[in-house]
Amino acid sequence: MLYSVNFEKLLRDLKDVAHWYEAQLGIPVRESRLEKIISLIQKTEDARKNSKIQEFVNQEGMEGLYIPIYDAGAFPIIKEAFGEFKLGVLKKRDLEEIIKGPLNPSDEEIGTGEVTPRNKLFELFLAALVQKAGIDVIGFDDIKIKLNSRNIFIECKRLGSKSKDRMKNNLIEASKQINQKIINSNNKKSRGIIALSIEKLFPFYGQLDNLQKREDGSKFLKGEMHEWLMKNLDFLWRSIPDRRIIGLIVFSRYLAMDTSSNYITAFNNTIFASRRAKKLLFGDKNLVETFSNKMYLGIEGF
Q: Which residue among 12, 78, 121, 300 is least crowded, i.e. fewest CB within 10 A of its CB?
């Protein structure tokens, strides 16, 4: 599932999100991370219109732009997917949580809970993508969906290191969390999926690339993700022996500027990699095929 957004549209959408928060949800956005993101996107778009985008990027520095720009694109997707939800399954506190915290991850203090809003934002963003694909989201810890009359628990992990040991530890932790949720569900037919954000593992993380054509960014991101997945898929599945975990969702992003228009575009891609058919438990093949078809892109795994 690949999509992209330019800042002109993003700015309009973010203002709609702010209105949704305040007018419908009763959540103030003043001095929140959302308000700071809107201000940053406004300055970026103003610089583009005045043909000073490169000066602006140089002045702000990519460290101050990169992650807030990425985070910005998640909020409109969440609103689009869940804007009509009655607060109940989707808790108001979750929507409050994702606009908290500092603008940049470098300002987060480890152990203080300041990383929680960004983690929750990734969870709600991924839940929104799943909902938009036509799959019913019925819970948000991390994500619980219902498909083919069966429950699937999705555990989300943001990978921050290329270390195979740390990657394996994340997979083991996610497997344990899914196992506990299946036990608590009292339903042996429940299954699990592990979602991995791998953007920090690529050399282009934290950079702004220049493109001759906007469509080149889509091709580049898909190619890089596919190559990473093919190199690591056997390792990933060997780290997840529990066959009740039927697939992996792999997510990444890429930031680039079209030199012909000076538009900055954030490209986002999601790939679903299923466990190899012969490794699936009885009755899971149709479940995997349905999920893969709805998420548009599937790769069979080890």
A: 12
Residue 2 has pLDDT above 60, yes or no: no
> Half-sphere exposure of 149 toward its Cβ, with a 13 Å CA cutoff?
1
pLDDT digits (tens, 9 = 90+) for 163-203: 999 999 999 999 999 999 999 999 999 999 999 999 989 99
Q: What span, in angstroms and rounded, lies between the C-alpha atoms of 83 and 18?
A: 12
Structure tokens at 191: 């299954």
DSSP 90-138: S-HHHHHHTT-S-SSGGGPPTTTTTTHHHHHHHHHHHHHHHHHTT-EEE
Integer distance in angstroms from the first to the last C-alpha of the chain? 21
Instruction: Count H helices and E strands in the chain, helices first.
Output: 10, 9
Rounded CA separation 243/191 (Å): 9
Tell me, what's the pLDDT at 3?
A: 52
Query: What Rg, from alpha-carbon coordinates, does the chain have?
Result: 19
Which residue's structure tokens are 């699990």?
A: 192
Handedness of CA 101, 102, 106, 111 (dihedral sign): negative
Q: Where are the alpha helices (DSSP H) in 145-284?
A: 164-185, 215-238
Kindly report the average pLDDT of the chain as a whole number. 87
User: Is the Cβ–Cβ distance between 22 and 53 less than 8 Å?
Assistant: no
* Cα diameter, the chain: 60
- Whether the CB-CB separation of 99 and 117 falls below 8 Å is answered with yes
152: Cβ–Cβ under 8 A, 6 or more apart, which residues? 144, 145, 146, 190, 191, 192, 193, 246, 287, 291
* CA neighbor of 215 nearest in space, from 267, 167, 168, 164: 267
| Of 163, 168, 155, 129, the residue nearest 248 (C-alpha) | 155
